[in-house]
Amino acid sequence: MSEETQLRAVPGTAFRSAVVPPAGAADCGTPVRSSPSGSWQAAPSAPYRPLMEAEGEPERERNEHRAGAPAPMPVDRMSRRAEARRRRSNERIIRRRKDRVTGQEAGMATAEYAIATLAAVAFAALLVAVLSSGEIKGLLMSLITSALNFG
User: Fold this and answer.
1) Which of 7, 34, 63, 102 could bridge to 17 as Cys pair (CB 3.0-4.6 Å)?
2) What does the domain layout of the chain look like in residue ranges?
3) pLDDT digits over 116-128, tens only?
């Protein structure tokens, strides 16, 4: 690998790795890359290479954070805020999915509709039987007659 394409960690920048300038070029601690004209300029995005790998740490230490383990606490405020937004968003998504599942079970099933319909028909039949009897007919007629004669 040539000196121009070697990667190294650049502290104090958003880049996790950057292209190392050739010997004799000014090294101000910012990521740089060579342009076709030969001048040096800031790299818009450096090739990704994790810091721990660049430092030569073993594989087991690099993958310390595994699924199920708590995530390491972000250091700066922007990272903490982004992490909090991500967590709240995930909680909302989970809550919506859970509500969608329980919302599907909120209505009555076909058997429950059938039972409710049979109960309504039975009550209507009982009401017709009671109201068609002679005593109830006479009572209702006297009630209607007295209401009409009241005015």
Assistant:
1) 7
2) 1-64, 71-107, 110-149
3) 999 999 999 999 9
